[in-house]
Specification:
- About 65% of the residues lie in helices and about 0% in strands.
- It is built from four helices and no strands.
- Helix 2 (about 30-45) packs across helix 4.
- The longest helix has 15 residues, at about 15-25.
- It starts with 12 loop residues before the first helix and ends with a helix.
- The mean pLDDT is about 80.
Length: about 80
């Protein structure tokens, strides 16, 4: 059994609302799930540069998210975490 913890950040209210809307509309997931995906990708990469607008990463991620199978699996993963 894994141990879970909370991760709390303070951000601008408008940024949060815009991010929530975009995450739901484009990926069908909430900010918590999006953050978990980002953190898992961040710790699994040897290089850190991917998260600062890397075009190849963005392109591959966008292609992946267009797949209903992948989107569904990520939503299920997020709900299970």
């Amino acid at each position: 059994m894994t141990t879970q913890t909370q991760f709390i950040i303070r951000i601008d209210k408008n940024l949060k609302e815009l991010a929530q809307k975009k995450a739901q509309e484009t990926l069908g997931i909430g900010l918590g799930t999006l953050t978990k995906i980002f953190l898992r990708a961040f710790v699994s990469k040897a290089e850190v540069s991917f998260y600062l607008g890397d075009k190849e990463f963005d392109q591959k991620f966008n292609e992946l998210m267009k797949s209903e199978k992948a989107s569904s699996a990520i939503r299920k993963l997020g709900n299970s975490l």
